Amino acid sequence: MTSRSPGKRTSRRTRSAITVAASGVLAAAAVLTFSPTAHAADTLGGAAAQSGRYFGAAVAPHLGETDYESTLNREFSSVVAENAMKWDATEPSPGQFNFSGGDELVAYAKQRGKFVRGHTLVWHDQQPGWVQGLTGDTLRQAMRNHITKVAGHYAGKIDSWDVVNEAFEGDGSRRQSNLQKQLGNGWIEDAFRTAKAADPKAKLCYNDYGTDGINAKSDAIYRMVQDFRARGVPIDCVGFQSHLASNSDLSTYRQNLQRFADLGVHVQITELDVGGSGAAQANVYRQVTQACVAVARCNGITVWGVTDKYSWRAQETPLLFNGAYQKKEAYGAVLAALNSAAS
Ligand code: G3I
Fold this sequence. Notes:
Order of helices and strands: HHEHEHHEHHEHHEHEEHEHEH
Distance between the termini: 51 Å
Bound molecules: ligand G3I
Helix content: 40-55%
Mean pLDDT: 91
Largest sheet: 8 strands, parallel, barrel
Number of helices: 13
């Protein structure tokens, strides 16, 4: 028995109809296959926006440098002042406020449609000298006045404020700062309530480092957030600084973000940088980005600087652009992770 090809029984008209239909199917398949790539964003901010997130950078006063500014403009949809909104910068003498650095950054961001994170209202570090010597109720009033004036000045312009920064130790105990020693456990709650009154619209965050997984420190912060939520203390978000190394253990990173998110707060990666280079560095950046996009309430990532050359860890080359503003391998890993979340 001879086999016959189906074509031998098909008329010319039918064949051409099949050809047209097949090419239509192929075209549709091509659209389906290639549309995510065709629509993949080619900047970090653009890629993050596809899933409703921001991708930001900490900014230091280098906006006059052409490559710095063009990289910032192109890639990032959110900014945070690396130092300009801290207590020593904004209130160098009691009651004398200087908003110049922060105002410049906020104006710059608003003109370009970028979000602004506020960093930070209360921290044991970078306090002006006059605060360090205060005691008891005088310190309490100084803290409240500082929050009221700074958060009030920027009210309506800040997406999320780091109200309190780094108040816990690695073992989960409270850091024995001047604030803790002078004001007792209630000072964090006091700071959040004061910030809420000053800027009711901003998301109010607690921010810390060393919380890159489930550990004693993140457990303690988790209990605090749980308690605040139960008692109606206004807290809206938790910042995970994420100052990492290429060999950081991230085995519980996503799970940790998720348990905080499950308390009803947003989670944000707030100061990401990863010491190292090449594939190892890129892999850590990828894991962090994938973790954030896997958690619905993780609404943004901020890297702690634009270029390696101005990083506080410059020798460890921890950022996404090298000193010549070239994209590093880690950049590609982050961009791909953001784009795959969108598709
Ligand atoms: O402003 C002075 C300037 O007047 C002086 O000439 C110069 C001389 O060194 O110092 C300048 O201050 C420095 C400031 O950065 C601005 O450049 C301080 O000495 C320096 O200590 C300060 O470092 C900052 C550090 O926080 C302070 O602890 C880093 O830039 C900043 O990246 C870093 O950021 C922190 C976050 O806020 C919180 N999480 C950890 C993160 C890394 O430490």
